[in-house]
Specification:
The chain has a five-stranded mixed barrel. The chain has helices at about 10-15, 35-40, 85-90, 105-110, 125, and strands at about 1-5, 20-30, 55, 95, 115, 130-135, 145-160. Helix 3 (about 85-90) packs parallel to helix 4 (about 105-110). Strand 3 (about 55), helix 3 and strand 4 (about 95) form a beta-alpha-beta unit. The protein is about 20% helix and about 30% strand. The chain contains five helices and seven strands, in the order βαβαβαβαβαββ. By secondary structure, it is an alpha/beta fold.
């Protein structure tokens, strides 16, 4: 098990290989379809996204006494049409989701970003790794807004490494 702390660097990512188990600690951001579309339409650049880790999820409503609701990963293929441009525009260094990525994403991130897989169906477990959460962009989108999360030991698996090796064998 490898421990990683944000902000991530290319040097740290070079040590990762597809299939590695990782515990991620630090700041990550959520974004799904609607937020991705708005980020691409938006003429403004957001410096906080440079070198960021984007988690494809929309937090469920927060139960009383909790920091966030369940936070299971969204199917990453839904973000494939946005990922190459967002990675280029904002310098995103890693994404988190579930399922395989398309060829366009694999080409766009090779040598510049990694893709981590989170365990589908484990939204409650993943939410338990969040120590702080705040909406930072597009609050009108509700669960699809961009949230800044502080996580501690979030369990992930390297699904696409910097060399383009794919855990899904595609």
């Amino acid at each position: 098990m490898k421990k990683l702390n944000t902000p991530l660097t290319l040097e740290a990512l070079k040590k990762l290989k597809t299939g590695d188990d990782v515990l991620l600690t630090g700041t990550i951001y959520t974004a799904r379809d609607k937020a991705h579309a708005k980020l691409l339409e938006d003429k403004q650049k957001y410096p906080f996204l440079r070198g960021a880790v984007i988690y494809y999820c929309g937090p469920a409503p927060t139960p009383k006494g909790k920091i966030v609701g369940s936070m299971g990963p969204t199917t990453s293929g839904r973000m494939d049409k946005f990922t190459p441009k967002l990675t280029q525009k904002n310098g995103i260094i890693a994404t988190i989701g579930k399922g395989p990525r398309g060829e366009g994403v694999k080409t766009a991130i090779k040598g510049r970003a990694v893709y981590f897989a989170a365990l589908g169906g484990a939204g409650a477990l993943l939410a338990s790794k969040v120590t702080k959460a705040e909406c930072v962009l597009y609050p009108e989108l509700g669960a699809e807004a961009v949230y800044k999360l502080e996580v501690c030991d979030m369990p992930l698996k390297v699904a696409l490494d910097l060399d383009g090796n794919d855990i899904y064998g595609r």
